[in-house]
Each structure stands twice: as C-alpha cells, then as structure tokens.
Amino acid sequence: MDTRELRTKATQITPDIYSLEIPTPFSVGAVNVYLVKGDKLTLVDVGPKTDEAWQALTEGLQSAGVRVEEIEQIVLTHHHVDHCGQLEKVRQLSGAVTLAHPQAAPYVELDEDFMHFHDQFFLELYQKSGVPSDMLVIIAKFHKLMKTFSEPSRIDVLLKHKQRVPNLEEWQVLYTPGHSQSHLSLYRERDRTMIGGDHIIGHISSNAFIEPPRDRSGARPLTLVQYRTALQMCADMEVERVLAGHGEIVTDHRELILARLQKNWSRTDTLRSLLADGEKTAYELTTLLFPTLYEKELPLTLSETIGHIDLLTILHQVEVKEKDGVLYYHL
Fold this sequence. Notes:
The protein is of the alpha/beta class. The protein has a single domain (11-330), classed as Metallo-beta-lactamase, Chain A (4-Layer Sandwich). The protein is 36% helix and 19% strand. The protein contains 10 helices and 14 strands. A 7-stranded mixed β-sheet has the order 1-2-3-4-5-6-7, covered by helices on one side. A 5-stranded mixed β-sheet has the order 8-9-10-11-12, with no helix packed on it. A two-stranded antiparallel ribbon has the order 13-14. Helix 7 runs antiparallel to helix 8, helix 8 packs across helix 10 (298-314) and helix 9 packs across helix 10. The mean pLDDT is 95.
C-alpha cells in the first residue's frame, strides 16, 4: 500500500498495537486512538466528528495497512466527544460492533430524555454552587458542543470491570471512573501494557468531571474520590507502559500517580486556607483557586473545586449551610 502522500501516519508501539494521533478543536490538543490487531481488528476510541479528525483517522489507518471498512469492533474508553465523536461514521462504513461501559450509552445515543435530565442536574448544581445567572448559558453550550462534535450512535456490547474484552482475550477491562462515569482502561498482563484513555496522562492531570448520578434519584457521584481510588488501584498493578489518551506513553505510572495524589492534598490544603477567613460558595472558591481559568473553563474548574470540597467533607473538616438555595461552606 502506497503511504508516501499521507500526512498522518500511525506509530507502531508493539507488533499488534498502533497509535494514531487525531487532531481535536479542544484545548487538550490531539487525542490518541489505538488500533489493536487481535482476533478482530479493533479500534480503541475514534476522535471527534470533524473533517480534520476524519482525514487523520483514515490516513493513519491506511499507513498501518488498514481501511476504515475493515474495522470489526470499537472499544470506547469513555463518552467524551474527543474520544467518541466519529463513532457513527466508522460504524456506518465498517459495520463494527461498539463496546463500552453502560454509562456511556445515553451520551453516545444523545438520548433526549437523558440530556434533559443532564441539563436540569447541572442547572441545579450550578445554582446551588452560587454560579451567577449570566454564566448558566454554559449548560446550553455543552449541549451544543455534544451535537456539533458527535452524532447519535449506539453501544452494542456493555463491558464491566475485570471481564475479558471480546475477541481480544488477552486484554482485561478495568473500570476506572473519575474523569468520567463511563471510563474504562484496558490491561494486558503479558507485556504489562495499559490502554489508559484519560485516566493516566503524563503531561496533565485528568479532571474529575462532575456528572449526573447513574440512578436519577440518587446522589451525585463523588468523582474526585472515585478518581483517587481508581488511581490507587492502578498504582498497585505491574504496568510497563500506559498508552494515554493524550500525549506521550507513560512509563513511570507509580511515580506519576503518587505525584497526582499528593497534588490533590495540596490543593485541598489551599481550599481549607481560603475558607479560614469566612464562608464561601463553591463558585467563589473556584474564582480564587483558578483566577485566570474559571471563566473559560467553568465546568472543569468548578468540578475540581467541588471534588476537593467532597474530600474535606469526608474528613469532617468543612461544614455546609444553605441560604436562599445556595450552599455556603465553612470550616
């Protein structure tokens, strides 16, 4: 196959794994998609729905000797659009079966009933957090982002923790929530390789995004607590390389995880010091923790703040009271 004119080329990591760098329109930069040649030709993630991403995906596969039409199954690490946006386009061309965590399904399907529940969840969360009314447009912007960079698709096979990946029997599914409620990583013991999605990234710390609960009547998940627990699980594993969803391969996962956990506690200490001079809302704390970032990245920064409030609450180091529908935290 002639690949001389290809601008995007796959990088061979092992005899059966190729990495494809797919551009995204987001601040996180390019996303890594992985081609695994097992019993069935498998793509792990697909990139966002943009013309540039589609060109990079098709060219990258071509350089690895594969056409999109030959992909037989797709495993999603999680439901964020930079990882799953092109899913339906690949499915339509290839007829590939999609495998993912159950909680990815309503996002991938863009289920309107769920999206309404999703928007109402965030409206209530942001109002209770003290977010100014003029900033609540961020909820509609997120909905628009979902529909711009992905399209409705479907999940065929639901994956759960510790099961084997169908048609990739050497690979084990790990449920690694925190960055998203649907997040999965894949692990192969033979060569101690982990495909880590956004769970473990070398150059940036993954944000533990607040998301609605699985049970619509239940409490919201404590995402930072989940993330720390999943990191600790991975730190106990023998891993030689983590193939990250963004950036370079991670070869020092234990040291990196320890640094991330320590940074969590450092930020929690900072939040505690900010509360020392009086009660504050989650939004007010966010503006102090992230003064140059909160306006541009409110969902990310507010999630981070609420996550650290959760840690302090678990430790009985912060208390909360409600006034006029807004929550105020104090030591």
